[in-house]
Known about the structure:
23% of the residues lie in helices and 28% in strands. The protein has 354 residues and is α/β, with parallel strands linked by helices. It has two domains: 1-49 and 100-118 and 207-354, Alpha-Beta Complex (2-enoyl-CoA Hydratase, Chain A, domain 1); 120-204, Pdz3 Domain, CATH 2.30.42. The strands form six sheets. Strands 13-14-15-18-19 form a five-stranded mixed beta sheet, covered by helices on one side. The longest helix has 16 residues, at 59-74. It is globular and about 75 Å long.
Amino acid sequence: MALLRRRRGKIKFNLARPILVLGLTAVLGYLLGFSHGYALKGSLWPGGSPSQIGLAQQEDFQLFWTVADIIGQKYYGNFDLGNLVYGSVQGLVAALSDPYSSFDLPDTSKQFFQELAGNYEGIGVEVEYRDETLVVIAPVKGSPAYEAGVRPGDIILAIDGKDTSSMDLVEALAKIRGPQGSKVKLLIQRNGQNIIFEITRTLVHIKSVTTKEEDGVFIISISKFAEDTDKLFNQAVSDILKQNPSGVILDLRHNPGGLLDSAVEVANEFLPAGKTIVEERFRGGQKTIFTSDGSGRLTDIKLVVLINGGTASAGRLWQAPLETMAERPWSGRGALARARFRKWMNLLMARPFG
């Protein structure tokens, strides 16, 4: 059993490298967001890793090298070796047919980490594909998408006139984002009706934690579990405790998730020692259980948690432990849960292409 504090530490990444993101495991019945670092112990390949068993020398894998040789010898046009390698790896991961696993190129991984840092150019909307349909998870509060009226559950049929059913998530995100001041047109289906939104992009800065007070009750709103969440939340709790609060409302509405570590750290503040926060289960039967370590400062404060249809991923981490405790009610419905979390791995290439 692992205590919470074992997960502390800053995330380190290189924006110029590709990343591999894998949907790895069921976790307490809820999707819990992104967790960084390597999780798998032992090989996924029968008999050892590909390098250990000489997979490249096997007859089936020889097909890859045969095709690569044919391209090099007979292809009439020009080609970029780096693009061929990237395309091959993307195909390898795509063949898993798992919507939560992807191989992201450097430009895409850069966008991903910029969002975790809370800054990017776009309209401020979280989306994902479900059954080949591009669906809005949640608009970021205060973003152009939020102000325009985009809602959780909206289906994006087209972006600037291009059908989204023929796109993957990377292409869809690239088309939604763009330089601030430019516009994007979304064809959205809601309750069987089609609506066109023309939204001006801007520099989206997301402060993940905000607080306000009403009659002695403090409302802590977490828009996303991001890199700044731990710091901002810790400061918010310190400030709140100085004012003798009569209760806390934790507002997770429109929270699409984010970093698992941040969600676990926040949950720890509300739980007494020894409560299971989340359990990670890995291939091969390994599992890691994260429990509250007893350092929580809000364990005796009356708490209400707010969710809605835009609450997903790490935003659902709270329900299992809090529902077993008195005076920890939930308010909301229709939140998303998927029983998966995702691990990203920052990949270092042996040599750059160019």
